[in-house]
Amino acid sequence: MTEITEVPSPFCGMGTDDLTIKVNGVSIKVSKNGCEVNTAAFEQAITDTSPRVDGKEVSLKQAVTRASEILRNANQPVIGGCATDVNGMRALMALADGNGAVVDNMNFTKARGNFLALQDSGWMNTTLAEIKNRCDLFVVIACDLEVFAPRFYQRYLWNKESMFLDDTSAREVIYIGKAPSGKASTSPKKTKAQVLECADADLPEVLAVLRALIKENLVVAEQVGGITVADLQVIADKLKAATYGVVTWSASTLDFSQAELTVQTICELVKEVNASGVRCSGFPLGGKEGDQTANQVCGWQTGYPARMRFSSDIPEYDPFLYDINQMFDNGEVDALVWVQAFNSSAIPPTGGKIPTIVVARSGMRFKEEPEVFIPVGTPGIDHAGHAYRLDNVVAIRLKKLRDSGLPSTAEVLTAIEQGLVS
Amino acid sequence: MLTKLTGGIVYDPANKVNGKKKDIYIEDGRIVSKPRNVEPDQEYNIGGKIVMAGAIDLHTHIGGGKGNIARMLMPENHRIDPVAHTDIKRAGTGHAMPSTFTTGYRYAEMGYTAAFEPAVLPINARQAHMEMGDTPMLDKGGYVMLGSDDFFLRMMTANKDQQAINDYVAWTLRATQCVGIKVVNPGGISAFKFNQRQLDLDENNTHYNVTPRQILKSLATAIKELGISHPLHVHGSNLGVPGNIQTTLDSIVGVEGLPMHLTHVQFHSYGTEGDFKFSSGGAELAEAINKNNNVSVDVGQIMFGQTITASGDNQRQYANHGISSPNKWVCMDIECDAGCGLVPFKYKDQNFVNALQWAIGLEIFLLVKDPWRIFLTTDHPNGAPFTSYPHLIRLLMDKSFRNDMLATIHPEAQKMTTLGAIDREYSMQEIAILTRAGAAKIIGLENRGALGKGDFADIAVYTENDNREKMFEKPDYVFKDGELVVKEGEVVKVVWGTTHIVRPDYDKSIEKDLKKYFDRFMTMKVGNFTISDDEITEDGRGSLTVHPTVGEKV
Prior knowledge:
With about 425 residues, chain A is an alpha/beta fold. Chain A contains 13 helices and 22 strands. Chain A is globular.
């Protein structure tokens, strides 16, 4: 048994790196600083160790050969999932470039609102350490933060010490939209978060009014989406009185048509607080299971986030057209590579209708057995690697914790790519 | 294998060779003297062609988070410049902020063999190295940013002695695998987080009670005492502000004779005269550079057209967001470490300010006398994409072309510049100094930027052409570490360069303070912050080249 300390996690999106992990052979136990997300993800046992072709166990070489053959014969291959580490993503991009494939991160549709807002008008954002040390007013828009990241409040808001706040427990937390499901947002002094609830469908209107109040535009209505304008005025005033306000949202929970306009409203109201003469920053949530990693690597290698294609030998980006789910529905795809090195329950979306190659974490259970299944090691457990945190600035160095003998995503995808030309 | 380049006209200022016909022999990646009684295995007959060392860009934003935000922000700018893959090259995109592969290929296809990222945030250094790791053809390196990070500012407020500052600077260089230190708007990025919207050279950061002048002095001293070759790389205070020439001149005085490199100095050389209250400080700046041998500059020339400005200076970028074109921009505060700002710009020749910016940059190029202390940059992508270098070289080497261009810009700007009255034309040897020998010297690269015995065989061969733009945009051959990598302006072999770093010594006791600081205030463990060698070398392509440091007490 060995004990490894200061282990970084690729699972929670926060880049939590204070976990203590006990390793016994290939079994793993999180002994310190685990949470609902990380502990289960680290402790999951290895079940599959051998690749399969058409459900039969084969050697890695045979599985790779079959995968290359499927891709060689495909007219429009797509690579979905894209949940892996930096080196895995590098290999994925090389395979896609060589094979004329579509690259589509599995959470792109959920994050699309952020990309559309960014590419239309931009934003002013901040990162975790700034929140930890500066934030005195924290506004959560329409998401249940403690479910998303169980240790967020403990690590970044109710931390005992900060460089610039005398009393971190005096920070104020406000929820707009959904109420929090638990008590993580309640301060150490037992002050509960202020909650202004409304239906998702009313969010665009509620936030538009909040933005108008920040801009000091005339608002005639007295209430919006069940919230009084007077209550929103209090929030506008607080944002303009704060030293370092932070507004957080999760594009994935803004699950309604044209939600990018709501993201844009949030980003613009943050800008307008700054224009009024005080500091304020946005903080988009996301980035689990390698989403940011996929977008970062795809970004520096092609100039575009991870919903793009190489079908015409050049990188082309379209946040709508290259949604592989839609491409399946339209019958536009004749081979799928599904890459998911973190989460064995995230199965490919095709249900066996087209030739499918799965390169995924051991233990994936399929409704329809794919043509090829190659279990790979998990970055940060079975091999070293790099992963991005949700704030998209910090890349963490993932550690190898055990010797499982499972290949890395990068090794497998590189071998498949090499097989394309043979 | 012995390779011979026969009959070229060699410009090798490092070895005082100025346009002399000379054969060059290459063996095992290095230049060797003419061997006796051995026939070359391969010979390139380059009779009459111009031979220089591979060019070195000492200031170009090619790796790191802000560049990648710049890419994400501008999909429309990539769509106009798609790059298809070939048998050996990966697909990618230009234009203002190209993808990494395309960046490497395009640099090499102009004869460049090294490029340095000048704004590596410590906390984002891993990303900078990963992006540079995906940039082929080039050697690379980074200057790591200090001066607005809270650890340093806390040290300044606590009046820590110079030795402690030196230890922190050295530790940062090692932990981030960088080759130099950059300071961006000293203390100003931090000040913006405390809602200070501007910060003059002698103005206090309101929280820390520290001025930019003190920060410059402290970091410049550290570099001298640690013996880091590259002087403190300074993006000064008040970037873009009319009247900032005074700040720049004061900064030169403020550093008290210590080595200092003022970067993209064009953006820091503005006066307030004239009807538009915006004028050239080019002559004043050049005079100060000519007088102060401790100071070097790169210009940060602007070129007309669409680009995006990508900077660590979120305070000034925020101030300029109102003129972004297209109207979309990003500012970020980052990890109690620094910040960044991305503001797209479209420089227009019929806009008075832009036109004068263009002229100011050229004035500086032409009025600074010592070519070893001035460098050819556009601050890619901030002034223009690096692909405009051949055009810039033509502007410097060809007075009549320059004056033809001058005649087309905003008429009021023409009246406000002395450019038309400057006769100087750069010589071939001077271009070789600016883009090769001088750059290698000021970064402290051993055996690079030169064509003497023992130097690495990074070589560019051009066909003489009176149109210098045409000449420099398409070399006949480029060799990297002795291998032919570009032929007739096209990459023929993809190679991966080394990463240049320095590793000054320091007192390890600083690590105790850092551990405590990281545990109390940061969001990662200090052990996980440090970048290990294998992170750069494990892919089998990357390598590290450590350059020596010899400290000297100030």
